[in-house]
Amino acid sequence: MISTETRPAPTSTARWHVAVLVGGFALLAAVAVVSIGIGAQAVPPMDVLRALVAPDGSANQLIVLEVRAPRALLAIGVGAALGVAGVLIQTLSRNALAEPGILGVSTGAGFAMTIGAALGGVASPAAELLVATLGAAGATLLVYAVGRTAPLRLVLTGVALSAVLSGISLGLRLMSPDVFDKYRFWSVGSLAGREQAPLLVPMLAIGLALVGALLLSRSLNAAALGEAVARTLGANIARVRLATLVLITVLAGAATAVAGPILFVGLIVPHVARRLARGSVPWLTGYALVLGPLLMLLADIGSRVLLPTGEVPVAIVTGFLGGPMLIWAVRKYGAGSL
Amino acid sequence: MTTRLRARELTLSYGERVVSTKLSLDVPDGAFTAIVGPNACGKSTLLRAFVRLLRPAAGTVSLDDQQIAAYGSKALARSVGFLPQDPLAPDDIKVRQLVARGRFPHQSLLSMWSQEDEEAVTEAMETAGVSELADRPVQELSGGQRQRAWVAMVLAQRTPYLLLDEPTSFLDITHQYRLLTLLARLRDEGRTVVAVLHDINQACRFADHLVAMKEGRIIAEGAAADIVDAALLKEVFDLPCVVVPDPVTETPMVVPTHFDDP
Ligand SMILES: Nc1ncnc2c1ncn2[C@@H]1O[C@H](COP(=O)(O)OP(=O)(O)O)[C@@H](O)[C@H]1O
Ligand SMILES: [Mg+2]
After folding, report:
1. What predicted TM-score, i.e. pTM, was given to this entire model?
2. Any signal peptide, and if so, which residues (chain B) (predicted)?
3. What CATH number should be reported for the domain holding residue B14?
4. What is the pLDDT of residue A311?
5. Contact (Cβ atoms closer than 8 angstroms) between residue B212 and residue B196
6. Is residue B112 a part of any domain in this protein?
7. Sequence-ordered list of residues with C-beta below 8 angstroms from that of A24, at least 6 positions apart, any chain
8. Of B76, B83, B98, the CB nearest to A234
9. Do A232 and B93 touch (CB under 8 A)?
10. ipTM, interface predicted TM-score of the complex
């Protein structure tokens, strides 16, 4: 890999990407520290760092370690999951408008959680994860079956499915508030208080799926050249597609299991990452790994400071950002494909 | 003439629609084979069977006496390169990136970009004459440049066999001849080239082995000088013509005359 001769573009391109990514991770770390410091009890950045590096048990540090840091970690995990899921779903469908939120995958996961929880079926984090992933898979299959013929049709199908599922959730809640009201959270994504839930299982699932996405990215690069070329390059298209679908549902399902449905992160992240990655799925995935967490942390900060009266769900903040982004994407790509 | 890539008694079909039956072809090694025939006669279908994009309903394609069905997908991709008729590049890809993807069959899940990958890409771009275009987006290239970029992608695969489906369509006449000259040079360097060509005169000029197909069958095959005459053109293309020596290369040249029923 390393050689002393002059090696033109690929190596320098790789160096450029690595430099940008390192800068991105540094920025991410800084934003994480800021995010941890913000709240009813403000903690200065230096104290945050001290709490993380050398805990001494003070009240401020307890807030940081017990509440704020887990929440930042949660935002990072959810952001990475949704960002990379967006990259995978856009690459797979060659559709610039595709996104787990818009396509109803996240809503499907949230809906499955609501029903599962109300029926008393989801008692453990592993069961939550399973139910959410099954919900995501069900929504994916349904939306794909109905809408695969055209990019815009796919999006409309997803939006319609989301609306129907949200409507049913609302109806159930109105019918028996005592049963369903506590699952309200699974119709509008939020990070508030979620850091207290057991996060190990979903975070582990997200971590594994992210590794899987990186391993798969080279095959997706080949797949992007169209079925005939990809197959004659030796890519097993059917297997690549299936693996991608599984990763999308696990990522969207796990993110929804911990934070509820969050729209537009999977749309914003790939579009920004694409400007940097310039046509390479591996780098695109790498950038999504930085940009997704960054966006979620910023949105989470926004959700805490925007209203003086209290927190807004983070999904509302991403919605504010994502709506205009969707309009931009529709105008730029129209109903056409990537 | 030795043969390592051969099709035996193929039945090729899309569902109920049978395109070819009992189709056999020995691809001469180290030679330039051109396949000609009217539209929809099954040229692409045959090529797709050779690169395992289409599974024969009956019969076998073999390489080095092993059925290609038994090859691993990357192993076959290291032996046989294929360029379909209308490949579609992703929006934002640059020429060098496209060419680099030809290295896919040589890479494993975790392998890094190697020195050999780098050399193969550089060499492929030089051979196909797209080195200067390396950092240009594929989308912005002219038809001829884009086609050469795709050829470079297949060359980066470093396969001894190159199969191309109508590589000269959509190119202006100069670029057609340049591309064919490039393919002939690859043949001279030892590769086996198989191309579906539209222009019978170009096929006669460049191919060592000409295969004329009609309605899924091979009507004639051999050196152009041995098989191309007015009778063959009448039978394969239903074209009234005279065949004269090409003033430049002496290979057969088809000059259409008039239809009896205009
Ligand atoms: N994917 C397909 N599904 C069904 N029929 C096909 C398909 N591809 C080609 N055919 C049919 O097979 C026949 C041979 O096609 P093809 O091999 O593409 O011809 P050529 O390349 O000689 O023009 C044509 O009649 C065509 O309509
Ligand atoms: Mg054809």
Report:
1. 0.85
2. none
3. 3.40.50.300
4. 83
5. no
6. no
7. A287, A290, A291, A294
8. B76
9. no
10. 0.92
Closest CA to A172 of A234, A114, A100: A114
Q: Which residue has the higher pLDDT, A170 or B40?
A: B40
B38 vs A64, residue with greater confidence = B38
Tokens 């051969």 correspond to what residue? B6
Provide the token pair at B213: 């197909």
pLDDT at B229 exceeding the cut of 50? yes
Contact A285, A84 (CB under 8 A): yes
**Which residues pair with residue B255 across a beta bridge?**
B242
Q: How many domains does chain B have?
A: 1
Which of residues A219 and A117 earns the better pLDDT score? Answer: A219
Least Cα distance to A267 among A209, A327, A214 occurs for A327
Q: Is B203 on the interface with A (CB under 8 A)?
A: no
Which chain B residue lies closest to A94 (C-alpha atoms)?
B90
| CATH number for A150 | 1.10.3470.10
Range of the domain at A118: 98-198+253-333
pLDDT band at A3; cut points 50, 70, 90: very low
Average pLDDT, chain B: 94
Is B73–A228 a contact, with Cβ atoms under 8 angstroms apart?
A: no
The answer to the question of residue A76 being in a domain is no
Of the candidates A294, A314, A315, A309, which has an alpha carbon nearest to the alpha carbon of residue A40?
A309
Q: Tell me the CB-side half-sphere exposure of residue A102, using CA atoms within 13 A.
A: 29
Residue A181 maps to a domain: yes
Nearest to B104 among A1, A222, A279 (CB): A222
B153 contacts in chain A (CB < 8 Å) = 229
